[in-house]
Design a protein that fits this description.
- With 259 residues, the protein is an alpha/beta fold.
- The protein has a single domain, classed as Metallo-beta-lactamase, Chain A (4-Layer Sandwich).
- Strands 8-7-6-5-4-1-16 form a 7-stranded mixed beta sheet. It has a 7-stranded mixed beta sheet with strand order 9-10-11-12-13-14-15. Strands 2-3 form a two-stranded antiparallel ribbon.
- It starts with a strand and ends with a strand.
- 46% of the residues are buried.
Length: 259
């Protein structure tokens, strides 16, 4: 099983639009391709070819093209914030040729908010097919041969969902957009072969993990491999790579991690 990091950046991406020259790279070296970050999403792929998408980032079409993705078996949402959900319409071409909608899952509140905002995706409209059959995670334990575990995580005043994917004795866990570590998170992610974790910046933040918190989660869960994502413009790839333990990598767009 492997994970493809489709997008490794924060809600504004890197570089951020603006600044003296129209693009704000912050502390990131613009000559380093791994500093160019789209909004966060990942793809889980089993050896048998099953593909599970996590989040529909606002850069989803670009990410599909860059990684030659033209088919998925299901989509999971961590939460409904714009950078994780508003690329949802880019699923429409992946519905073509299917006999039914793409299965989609989220916790109750995420499902409610997505239905409210993107009703046409889940019910069809004006002769267009339903794109996604959206259901809650409550009873889900397996999806297309991959075991599914999840927990709700604090995300400042909001909530996000962390996921654990199990297949053929291997585990990939995904924890983005969390602001504190709970016992439930440690239990779910414990012993992961791969942990992909939120790591916005070095300084503390009210709604995201900083570097210290990300490394603490990696230590508490005893994850074998760790990748840092949701990185802002203060997190230069080369500089950060020199600061972290050997089993931890700075995630980047297009990075493939095998469990």
């Amino acid at each position: 099983m492997k994970a493809i990091i489709l997008g490794s950046g924060t809600s504004t991406g890197v570089p951020r639009i603006g600044g003296e020259f129209g693009l704000d790279w912050g502390d990131c070296d613009p000559e380093e391709p791994r500093n160019r970050r789209t909004r966060a999403s990942i793809l889980i792929e089993s050896d048998s070819g099953t593909r599970l998408l996590v989040d529909t980032s606002t850069d989803l079409r670009q990410q599909f093209i860059a990684n030659n993705i033209h088919k998925i078996d299901a989509v999971f949402w961590t939460h409904d914030h714009a950078d994780h959900a508003h690329g949802i319409d880019d699923l429409r071409p992946l519905r073509y040729g299917r006999t039914g909608p793409i299965p989609g899952y989220g916790v109750d509140e995420t499902v409610r908010r997505l239905r409210q905002r993107f009703g046409y995706v889940f019910a069809g409209q004006f002769g267009y097919h339903t794109i996604v059959q959206l259901e809650t995670l409550n009873q889900l334990r397996m999806c297309a041969g991959i075991g599914i575990g999840w927990t709700v995580m604090p995300h400042g005043p909001a909530k996000s969902t962390g996921f654990r994917f199990d297949c053929d004795g291997k585990t990939i866990s995904y924890a983005t957009d969390f602001s504190e570590i709970t016992d439930e998170m440690v239990s779910l992610f414990y012993g992961s072969d791969v942990l992909i974790t939120d790591c916005l910046r070095r300084e503390a933040h009210p709604t995201h993990a900083n570097l210290t918190m990300s490394l603490e989660l990696a230590n508490l869960t005893k994850a074998k491999k760790v990748a840092l994502i949701h990185l802002d413009k203060s997190m230069d790839y080369a500089t950060l790579s020199r600061e972290i333990p050997a089993h931890v990598d700075v995630g980047f767009d297009g990075m493939v991690i095998t469990a």
